[in-house]
Design a protein that fits this description.
Helix content is about 70%, strand content about 5%. It is mainly alpha-helical and about 500 residues long. The protein has 2 domains: about 250 residues, Arp2/3 complex 21 kDa subunit ARPC3; about 220 residues, Hypothetical protein af1432 (Orthogonal Bundle), CATH 1.10.3210. The protein has a two-stranded antiparallel ribbon with strand order 1-2. α6 packs antiparallel against α7. The two termini are about 45 Å apart.
Length: about 500
């Protein structure tokens, strides 16, 4: 069961969310007012006087649409409402998409309006479930704007108004399902071509009476509709980086950019802490595989794993994987050593926030050790004094709040443990992974992330399979050296 389904927001948070919703509603009304004015700069006052009832219907209709959105999230995803930037971004998408459609429709052609731009943006900035619901809201928003304002510049206004409802809903829905697996910006642009087919069919059906009287306009309408879908993908490509930057949001495109070898923090990690960098690469592969196995976001898991140990950049030589023969911990107290080791979680969080990386990634850096004890230095302190407080040798938490943080907690420990193993048989690997998971369960590390026993079992078996593939048995190769005449000069046996 997900956390969002068991946690209810407080009345104060709901009230604050409702206030933000209402403020965004007023902004939306103001934008629609500007559309009416821009569409007829000299006659908009006459329009308001003549169509007062239509304006009132518009105000009420938009209010009910936004109220439906608020009630839906209050009951189905209260956590979404608690994060106020989500609400602001949602309404920003509605406003930007509406404005784009208005200007394309007014200055180019009504059928060229790129309705699917909203669906593309909502899909990559939120997720499929949010995008499907919000596309429904956007489609009816466009419909009521067309129905109650003067923003549809066409002679056959009834056909255009009702076709806009179908076109926005159909193009948006197809865009969401056809683009769900897109991983590149080029793939997004190609999706715009594919979603054209169903919307072109709708346009042709709505304009069948014109096929005999005005066949040029009939087929030009289909051409404009095809163009609109390509424009939708192009506008999405333009505005996605803007929303990513403003709201520090995660998209599959940004996740891939963050895992590029040219990403600044990864370059620092590679140069200043090469051992940590190599460890992070392996943990990323393990975390990605485990995330796929339990249906979590594999791209996010891989990216978070790349950055989970960046806090070690503050003192890289204090961590075993970056050390040579000299070990600084031989010269300091176990308490100080434990303090240095556990501080890398908070240092990593602070560094990622300072560099404006998404909070979801920073949270994993903070949570991936939870409140686990640092057993090596606790044991060392007990040998020295015989009286050590375990609280002084524990990470400060918090414990994992998401399944991805839990995956990385397990993968991180499993990778470090297997590195020190001499016996890497399947049975030994299975026992090791089981012990790692059971210990963390006993210490309550998974109490707040919503992960299930079944998912932990899947993670365990996935890790065993992955380690078995990496550490499989190798045949013995003869070490034969050849001279330039290709004659063997030695035949000693060695292991590869």
């Amino acid at each position: 069961m997900s956390r969002s389904s068991i946690q209810k927001p407080s009345k104060r948070k709901l009230a604050l969310s409702a206030l933000v919703f209402f403020a965004c509603y007023l902004v939306m009304l103001f934008v629609i007012f500007l559309m009416i004015v821009l569409n007829d700069p000299s006659g908009w006052t006459v329009f308001f006087h003549k169509h007062f009832s239509s304006i009132l219907s518009l105000i009420v209709s938009v209010f009910f649409l936004f109220a439906i959105a608020f009630v839906y999230y209050a009951f189905e995803d209260a956590e979404f409402l608690e994060h106020l930037p989500n609400i602001v971004m949602m309404f920003s998408l509605l406003i930007v998409s509406s404005v784009i459609c208005f200007f394309i429709g007014r200055y180019f052609h009504p059928y060229a309006r790129p309705f699917a731009v909203f669906a593309f943006l909502a899909l990559f900035l939120f997720n499929r479930r949010h995008a499907l619901f919000l596309n429904f809201i956007f489609s009816f928003l466009i419909f009521v704007i067309d129905l109650f304002t003067n923003t549809v510049p066409t002679v056959d206004i009834n056909t255009e108004i009702y076709s806009s409802l179908l076109l926005s809903f159909i193009s948006g829905t197809f865009a969401i399902f056809l683009s769900g697996g897109v991983k590149t910006r080029g793939g997004l642009l190609l999706s715009g071509v594919f979603i054209a087919a169903p919307t072109v069919i709708v346009v042709l059906l709505f304009n069948i009476p014109e096929i005999t009287s005005n066949w040029i306009d009939y087929f030009s309408a289909a051409g404009f509709r095809m163009l609109s879908c390509i424009l939708a993908a192009a506008f999405a490509l333009v505005f996605l980086p803007v929303f990513e930057k403003i709201f520090n949001s995660l998209t599959v495109f940004r996740l891939r950019e963050l895992t590029s070898t040219s990403a600044p923090l990864l370059m620092r990690l590679r140069d200043e802490a090469p051992g940590t960098f190599n460890h992070s690469l392996i943990v990323a592969q393990l975390a990605e595989t485990c995330a796929v196995a339990i249906g979590e976001n594999s791209e996010l898991a891989r990216t978070a794993a790349y950055y989970h140990d960046v806090g070690k950049l503050k003192q890289p030589d204090c961590f075993t994987e970056n050390q040579g023969e000299y070990n600084v911990h031989d010269e300091i107290t176990p308490e100080l050593s434990a303090d240095i080791i556990r501080s890398h979680a908070k240092d990593g969080y602070d560094l990622l926030i300072e560099k404006h990386l998404p909070k979801a990634i920073a949270d994993v850096a903070l949570e991936h050790h939870g409140t686990l004890p640092i057993k090596y230095f606790y044991n060392k302190a007990m040998r020295y004094s015989g009286d050590a407080d375990i609280k002084d040798f524990c990470y400060l938490g918090p414990i994992p709040q998401t399944k991805i943080a839990a995956i990385i907690m397990i993968a991180d420990a499993a990778e470090a443990a297997t590195r020190a193993m001499s016996d890497r048989s399947t049975e030994r690997l299975e026992r090791l992974c089981r012990e790692i998971i059971e210990e963390r369960m006993d210490l309550g590390q998974f109490d707040e992330c919503g992960i299930t026993i079944k998912e932990l079992t899947i993670i365990k078996m996935t890790l065993v399979d992955a380690f078995t593939g990496v550490h499989h048995h190798r045949v013995e190769y003869p070490s034969i050296r050849f001279n330039r005449d290709r004659q063997a000069v030695s035949t000693e046996e060695e292991h590869d």
